[in-house]
Amino acid sequence: MPTCKECENEVDQLVSIKVSGKAKKMCEDCADRIRETEEIAEQSESVVQGMMGFKGRR
């Protein structure tokens, strides 16, 4: 059985997601957690840029 590199648990299947431009294989639970964290970071960055009046590209 494959082992998740994030939580070190044995899982039935690993999924591959991109984290900071690099592909990583992890279990579905860890992948969901990472996706949520990245979404929150992106939204908070957007809010801060809006408060500062940033009009450029990210």
Q: Topology, please?
A:
Layout: E1 15-19, E2 22-26, H1 28-52
How would you concisely characterize the structure shown here?
This protein has one helix at residues 28-52, and strands at residues 15-19, 22-26. The protein is 43% helix and 17% strand. Strand 1 (15-19) and strand 2 (22-26) form a beta hairpin.
> What's the helix count?
1
Determine the strand fraction and express it as a percent band.
15-25%
Helix content: 40-55%
Global mean pLDDT: 90
**Biggest sheet, strands in spatial order?**
1-2
What is the straight-line distance between the termini? 40 Å
Query: Total strand count, please?
Result: 2
Model regions low in confidence, pLDDT < 50 over at least 5 residues: none
- Biggest sheet record: 2 strands, antiparallel
| Structure classification | alpha+beta
Give me the strand/helix succession: EEH
How many discrete structural domains? Answer: 1
